[in-house]
Amino acid sequence: MSLRIERTRALALLQDDGRFGVRHLGVTQGGALDWVSMRWANWLLGNALAAPVLEITLGGLALSVEADGVLGLAGADLGATLDGAPLPPWRAVAVRRGQRLAFDGPKLGVRAYLAAPGGFEAPALLGSCATVVREGLGGLEGDGKPVAEGDVLRWRGPLPEHRRMPATAIPDWSGSATLDVVVGAQIGGFDGQSLFDAFNTPWQIDTRSDRMGMRLLGPALRSKTRTMISEGVPLGAVQVPPDGQPIVLLNDRQTIGGYPRIGALTPLAIARLAQCLPGSAVRLRPVVAAQAQQAHRRALASWP
Amino acid sequence: MTPRIEVSALDCLTLRLFDRIDERNMPWLLAAAERLTERLGSALIDLVPSYTTLLIHYDLNRLTVDQARAAVLDALNGLTAAEDLGGREHLVPVWYDRRVGPELALIAERAGLEVDTVIERHAAHAYQVFALGFAPGFAFMGLVEECLATPRLATPRKRVAAGSVGIADRQTAAYPVASPGGWNLIGRTPVRLFDYRQDGYSLLRPGDRVRFEPIDHAAFLRLGGDDSAMPAMEHDR
Fold this sequence. Notes:
The structure holds two protein chains of two kinds.
Chain A: E1 2-8, E2 11-15, H1 35-43, E3 53-57, E4 61-65, E5 69-77, E6 81-82, E7 85-86, E8 91-95, E9 100-103, E10 108-115, E11 152-154, E12 177-183, H2 192-200, E13 203-205, E14 213-217, E15 231-232, E16 237-239, E17 247-249, E18 256-257, E19 261-265, H3 267-273, E20 281-287, H4 289-300
Parallel strand pairs in A: 12-20
Antiparallel strand pairs in A: 1-4, 1-11, 2-3, 3-10, 4-9, 5-8, 5-10, 6-7, 6-9, 12-19, 13-14, 13-20, 14-17, 15-18, 16-17, 16-19
Chain B: E1 4-9, E2 12-16, H1 26-40, E3 44-49, E4 53-58, H2 65-76, E5 89-96, H3 104-111, H4 115-122, E6 126-132, E7 139-142, E8 157-160, E9 164-168, E10 171-174, E11 179-181, E12 184-188, E13 209-214, H5 217-222
Parallel strand pairs in B: 5-13
Antiparallel strand pairs in B: 1-2, 2-4, 3-4, 5-12, 6-7, 6-13, 7-10, 8-11, 9-10, 9-12
């Protein structure tokens, strides 16, 4: 019960929810950047929502199916095909031994999530299989390597449920993204013009973006907080280094940091940002924590 | 000490206890960490201590921001500094040598000291672990004597060997694994600092105290050290 990697020029990583309870040791969180799509991929098969999945970035990946089974596909449309026939995301699909599954390149979104019955097999290190390349932790062999040609991804489960996703649950990624920011942290140190600019101008996603952080290009934001003593930084933190260009810190970020922050993206906004291509525009919107929490709880209730 | 609680994210609060780096902060930070762990129980996901703060990551499905804030305030009620830091004492062997510590000469020159004196002074103190970060098991320790304080390299190295011991301003640290880095390197330890297969994973933890013990080349090799040379950097400051 497995898939074999035939060819890859994609960044394809085994991921789950990430590591928790170890950040005081300097170990980063890791885990699927678009946690919403990861959950749907698993839900489609009746898996635990955070079972190990394959996170495929931008495409350029071909796999051969080595056993009959069912796979769950959610997240970006990377032009996937099964034996050449188009395979759009947000569905469970029956596969047969000998078939070829390919991810060509991004049509909508950036990261596709592929789930298998019961989740892919991978050793749990510090409670998670999440692949963090920089730390050499997680993945198929536990050494932080992305999946490579010839790797075999095994799954554990018996024949799964074969669920159909409610059409209303498929996210709308058309148009530019508006990302909710819970304001706080050192926001008091930024001048008025910077605060206006932060929330009233489109930001362009820089090509220098990865799983540690995404850089945003736009007007320079100025803070009177010059040097800070390093402190723990949360997922989604919007930090502003001296060049004034914000960086949104993501799952593989360093655990402590010393740049002033205007706040942090909500978990839902982080999932949305993970699907924005470099060069695309996003807007930041300040939100009140209580409202954002309600929206978050509503979203969690959407996995029936 | 007037604690401040700041919203850092939808599911994170920053508890700010101090405004400056001081070894006397640690007993308070550790005491607060213990209280928070007790009070928040399983609603606490992660607790990240640093020099002056604690980042409190709580379960968004269990607590609202207001409930989390109230719980933190409650935990701090009547807080006193920990009498016993609870931290461990470590003796970490270091081979101080130009071959693996190319900035030894630079630090000596800046301080107007002999290289041997720099080594003596670096090894003369028990340093406190203030925080772990940058990489798994990378412990920020201090404070080194003022005369040894040296700013980070203008251009970081692309690769610093595992075990390298360095100085940045008044802090000192050892790199658990090979990584890029901009600290001034003065030696190397053969000790393994982070191992996810070992209980506790990280040798050093916030609140621990570390004393460096100079060892010679033969002892370094005997303890399994890798003595491959670290090239010097151009200095443009």
